[in-house]
């Protein structure tokens, strides 16, 4: 089946000002948060978490309802749903897998990895994402996902950043050789060795410098990065009209945090949103994504979406995490 991602990317390439917006669900938290990754079992059980089987059932339902354009998973979850169960074969949703898991996303309780400058690392391989095994024939590469997320974190340290960039270069070369597509996630510095006065400008300029050395054959399909606000987003989008910029969601926050971030980012040029915890910690993920979709399509405002979402929760008999007045507040502002 034709994938909505490919159709939208083609339309955006033909007309960067079109209304198309790509929505992705980041269901790969097992690579970052371990046992807590699947999210709370219920609104009133914030410290009891879903099982991995329950987590994967939610993925199945979201894909079945065709609510997103991309479903991002860990390689192990993708193997089960993409290769074994074939749930994406007759779906417009594109399966994707996280292709690397740098040290700064390892959030094990008691660990200090996230506070140390990021180091490149990957638990999986392109071969395993594409086929489920390391030694595979070319024909077997079509069995799994053929889209991966590769992430980098730069910390204004020449030695560490060069190591990070060289690992990404090697990944790109292998991906090009094996026909594997990817999108690039660029985090804000997690442990700056040398102070950066303007983090947004630093990240933007690093992206521009990096992409300047990559030809079309190795170029990421789009970016995933923090939303630093209107000025930073407009500057990056204006610089290169062919660049498709996406935002990451970050921590869960209020419902208004999520809805306003998507609406504002689109207003100032973003064309993709990849939300993980904001979706995973929602009281009802199906309803929540439904309003993200309406916001992406421009058919509802953020304020209207929050109010309508609470109305749905009441109809479904689900207890909201917050009262409506509190959930309408902005608590996480762009840098």
TrEMBL record:
Superkingdom field: Bacteria
Entries under Gene3D superfamilies matching the protein: Aldolase class I (3.20.20.70)
Descriptive protein name: Fructose-bisphosphate aldolase
